[in-house]
Prior knowledge:
This protein is an alpha/beta fold and 300 residues long. The protein has helices spanning 4-16, 19-26, 30-44, 60-86, 100-117, 130-138, 203-214, 228-236, 246-249, 284-294, and strands at residues 49-52, 55-58, 92-98, 121-127, 144-148, 161-176, 194-197, 220-224, 242-245, 257-260, 266-274. The strands form three sheets. Strands 3, 4, 5, 6, 9, 10 and 11 form a seven-stranded mixed sheet that branches. A two-stranded antiparallel sheet has the order 1-2. The longest helix has 27 residues, at 60-86. It is globular. The two termini are 43 Å apart. The mean pLDDT is 87.
Amino acid sequence: xxxxxxxxxxxxxxxxxxxxxxxxxxxxxxxxxxxxxxxxxxxxxxxxxxxxxxxxxxxxxxxxxxxxxxxxxxxxxxxxxxxxxxxxxxxxxxxxxxxxxxxxxxxxxxxxxxxxxxxxxxxxxxxxxxxxxxxxxxxxxxxxxxxxxxxxxxxxxxxxxxxxxxxxxxxxxxxxxxxxxxxxxxxxxxxxxxxxxxxxxxxxxxxxxxxxxxxxxxxxxxxxxxxxxxxxxxxxxxxxxxxxxxxxxxxxxxxxxxxxxxxxxxxxxxxxxxxxxxxxxxxxxxxxxxxxxxxxxxxx
Length: 300
């Protein structure tokens, strides 16, 4: 009989690429992870991993086991959801990983609405960038992630996740108020400017870099901050120009800057749960509330 805990360990190693990183995600020691994997290999009767420098790769049998691990773990999520539904599941806690703009735009209004529609549901928030939240979800740290499409993100066919589109958010150009092109700037016209934006690794950085490449240039990103208020403040100080998600600008003081709505990139935002958990009675009202609130923000 294969121990499902060992299947979770196999998936964590496949997701993170090293035993050490998987151990950190599972809150185990590397030795414990190695023991779990060795036991699983004994149960299966085949090697599941090969080492490559500091990392590990799945063997052919390991890849087969990973496919079945995803299905088994999804079925366990469904079983937990059905048990919770049978015992009403009207009271409890759900943990959500979400990036700051979406916390303000959709998650906070959803929580406010749930006070009357699902008063027994307590929502715990973890502020996390879009690329971090999915890893937290797959590692079991959170129950739901609000994330964005980004390079190397799990796609809609990923058997580990169930995804629900929320909204599409355009980016706007932000320029110093006294900029020569303040009233007529396009992305292409700003090719020679100094740029301000998020650090590499932030999904927004990738969106901006791709948009600039499509416009025929590589941006001179001289100043970096993942805080859009800081980005806008630097633009207002004349330090450069920026592309900022539109919802991040909502309700923000904008002294010394001009915001131009121009054709350009957008980021697509979605909610995700582990496959099988979307029917959990604590997550159903949360997903429904997110869908309702996000409906006013843009096309999924």
